[in-house]
TrEMBL record:
<keyword id="KW-0560">Oxidoreductase</keyword>
<dbReference type="Pfam" id="PF00903">
    <property type="entry name" value="Glyoxalase"/>
</dbReference>
<feature type="domain" description="VOC">
    <location>
        <begin position="152"/>
        <end position="269"/>
    </location>
</feature>
<dbReference type="InterPro" id="IPR052537">
    <property type="entry name" value="Extradiol_RC_dioxygenase"/>
</dbReference>
<keyword id="KW-0223">Dioxygenase</keyword>
<protein>
    <submittedName>
        <fullName>Ring-cleaving dioxygenase</fullName>
    </submittedName>
</protein>
<dbReference type="InterPro" id="IPR004360">
    <property type="entry name" value="Glyas_Fos-R_dOase_dom"/>
</dbReference>
<dbReference type="InterPro" id="IPR029068">
    <property type="entry name" value="Glyas_Bleomycin-R_OHBP_Dase"/>
</dbReference>
<dbReference type="InterPro" id="IPR037523">
    <property type="entry name" value="VOC_core"/>
</dbReference>
<dbReference type="GO" id="GO:0051213">
    <property type="term" value="F:dioxygenase activity"/>
</dbReference>
<feature type="domain" description="VOC">
    <location>
        <begin position="7"/>
        <end position="131"/>
    </location>
</feature>
Length: 316
C-alpha cells in the first residue's frame, strides 16, 4: 500500500426543507454557503455546499434537500456522527449558542476528548470537539467570532454492519493508522490536520435506511488528478469495484461501497469552488454546469427560493 489519504474531503447528506437546511448550517453553525447548485443526477434538487471561507477540503458538508424526501434512519452502512472541530476553549460558547437556538446537547467523552453531541433540524447526528490542530476558519457570521468558528471536520464516527472489514479498509486501503482502541471503539488517524480522526464502533450495527437526516456518502481526499487515477487502481486491487471517474465540476469523483455497507467516495482537492465564481461571492447565486445552462429557467422555477440570513436566538 503506497497511497494514503489526508482525510475527509466532504460528507454528503439528505435533507428535506432547503431553507431550514441553510438556516441550520449557515444561521446556527455559522458555516459559509460556498456553492448553491443542483444534483447533477437529479436537477430538480438543490446541491448545497457549506464549509469554511473557501470551501476547503476537509470542511465541506453538502446536502441534497428535497421537499418530498422521506425521513431516513441512522444505522449500519452510514456515517453515524459527523464530527466538527472548534478552537480550544470554545465548547462553552457553542453549548450556550446551541441551547440558545433550542438545540439540545449531550456531553460525552471518547478517547479522553470531550464532545458536545446534538442533531440538526432533520435528525442528522453531529458533534463538536476542541483541538489545536488545523487552521482556524476565516469566516465569521451570525454572531460567531472567527476565534470560536468551526474549523471544519474533526472526523466522523462510522456505523458499520461489518466493523472488521471497515477498519481493514481504513488501514490497508485508505492508509489511516490505528492509534487507539477501547471496549467500544477503534480510532484511526490520517496524516492531515483536519478531517483526520475516524472512530468505528466495534459492534456491528443494524442497517440504516437513506432519507432526510442521514448521510449518503463520505468522500476521502486525493491530492490531484494523477493521484486520483492511482486511487482507482488501488481500490480495484483491494477487491472493490469503483465507478468510472466522474466530473463533479469542483472535483473529480469515484465511488465504491466498502464491505461494512458505507458508500465511500474519493474526490480530488482541485479545482475547487472558485472555478466558476469569484471567491468573495461564493454561494450567492445558482451555479449550473454548462450542459444545464439551456434549461436554467425551468430548473430555477422548480427550486424553492433560499437565502442566507442571520437568525435570532430563541432563548436568551
Amino acid at each position: 500500500m503506497t497511497l494514503r489519504t489526508a482525510g475527509i474531503h466532504h460528507i454528503t447528506a439528505f435533507a428535506s426543507n432547503p431553507q431550514a437546511n441553510v438556516d441550520f448550517y449557515a444561521g446556527v453553525l455559522g458555516l459559509r454557503l460556498v456553492k448553491r447548485t443542483i444534483n447533477f443526477d437529479a436537477p430538480e434538487v438543490y446541491h448545497l455546499y457549506f464549509g469554511n471561507e473557501a470551501g476547503s477540503p476537509g470542511t465541506i458538508i453538502t446536502f441534497f434537500p428535497w421537499p418530498q424526501a422521506r425521513r431516513g434512519r441512522i444505522g449500519g452502512g452510514q456515517v453515524g456522527i459527523t464530527t466538527y472541530v472548534v478552537p480550544q476553549g470554545s465548547l462553552g460558547f457553542w453549548e450556550s449558542r446551541l441551547e440558545g437556538f433550542g438545540v439540545p446537547v449531550k456531553k460525552v467523552t471518547r478517547f479522553s476528548e470531550n464532545y458536545l453531541q446534538f442533531t440538526d433540524n432533520e435528525g442528522l447526528g453531529l458533534e463538536l470537539v476542541e483541538r489545536e490542530e488545523g487552521p482556524n476558519s476565516g469566516w465569521s457570521f451570525g454572531g460567531i467570532p472567527a476565534d470560536k468558528a468551526i474549523k471544519g471536520f474533526g472526523g466522523a464516527v462510522l456505523f458499520s454492519v461489518n466493523p472488521k472489514r471497515t477498519m481493514d479498509a481504513l488501514e490497508h486501503l485508505l492508509g489511516l493508522s490505528k492509534v487507539a482502541e477501547d471496549v467500544a471503539y477503534a480510532r484511526y488517524r490520517s496524516f492531515g490536520d483536519i478531517g483526520n480522526v475516524i472512530d468505528v464502533p466495534l459492534s456491528a450495527m443494524n442497517g440504516g435506511s437513506d432519507g432526510a437526516g442521514t448521510v449518503h456518502h463520505i468522500a476521502w481526499r486525493a491530492h490531484d488528478f494523477e493521484q486520483h487515477a492511482e486511487w482507482r487502481n488501488s481500490v480495484e486491487k483491494y477487491g472493490y469495484r469503483p465507478t468510472p471517474i466522474v466530473d463533479r465540476q469542483y472535483f473529480n469523483a469515484l465511488y465504491f461501497r466498502e464491505a461494512g455497507g458505507i458508500l465511500f467516495e474519493i474526490a480530488t482537492d482541485p479545482p475547487g469552488f472558485a472555478l466558476d465564481e469569484p471567491a468573495d461571492a461564493l454561494g450567492e447565486k445558482l451555479m449550473l454546469p454548462e450542459w444545464f445552462e439551456p434549461h436554467r429557467s425551468q430548473i430555477e422555477a422548480n427550486l424553492l427560493p433560499i437565502e442566507v440570513r442571520v437568525l435570532e436566538e430563541k432563548q436568551k
